[in-house]
Design a protein that fits this description.
The chain is mostly beta strands. It has two domains: 96 residues, 2-Layer Sandwich (Glycoprotein, Type 4 Pilin), CATH 3.30.700; 68 residues, OB fold (Dihydrolipoamide Acetyltransferase, E2P), CATH 2.40.50. It has one helix and 16 strands. It has an eight-stranded antiparallel barrel. Strands 9-16-14-11 form a four-stranded antiparallel β-sheet, with no helix packed on it. Strands 13-12-10-15 form a four-stranded antiparallel β-sheet, with no helix packed on it. Strand 1 and strand 2 form a beta hairpin. It is globular and about 45 Å long.
Length: 177
């Protein structure tokens, strides 16, 4: 990303405002600065109609966010790890485009567990083709089943876990190339 394309955006959460600047994007990982603190963000699961939660790893911490309500064009009620927040983002459409949410992911991707839990089932096996968004595994955590979806269209090259396995957040599940 060139220095010219860096834009400062304003994020307001419960009345407190921060300046956000994108620093760098590498595949599905994005580095941003909030005020002067640099954060590394990796989207682990995007929201879908069936699974409305966004799961992200931010500096090694897994966060689960769900949009509860849209109040107007730029203000939302977001539930973040169970806590309800009033959020607005100036320039939000451009931020979504810049974050590469609909962008094609190039190269092999190691799929990791978004949270600790138990692998209930595997939906793909080695050397099988998968489409972007297709479930790869089902992880049970906090008495809820969460589908782990492929971030890209490709082929499952390796599977590192078996049904019934206990996994920790960030543990490798499979490789999609």
């Amino acid at each position: 990303m060139s220095k010219d394309s860096k834009q400062i955006r304003r994020l307001t959460v419960n009345g407190r405002t921060w300046a956000i600047t994108e620093v760098e994007k590498q595949g599905i990982t994005q580095k941003i600065k909030i005020n002067d603190e640099e954060l590394s963000i990796r989207i682990l699961r995007e929201p879908t109609d069936d699974q409305p939660d966004l799961v992200a790893n931010i500096n090694g911490k897994v966060l689960i966010a769900r949009r509860e309500e849209q109040r107007d064009g730029s203000e939302y009620l977001i539930r973040l790890n169970g806590r309800l927040l009033k959020v607005s983002l100036e320039g939000r459409e451009q931020l979504s485009q810049d974050a590469g949410i609909s962008e094609t992911v190039l190269g092999p991707v190691v799929i990791t567990a978004p949270m600790s839990g138990r692998i209930v089932s595997l939906k793909a096996s080695p050397n099988t083709p998968v489409n972007k968004g297709q479930p790869l595994a089902v992880l049970e955590a906090m008495k809820m089943e969460n589908e782990i979806a492929s971030p890209k269209t490709g082929i499952v090259k390796e599977v590192y876990v078996k049904p019934g396995a206990l996994v920790k957040a960030g543990e490798q599940l499979c490789l999609v190339a």
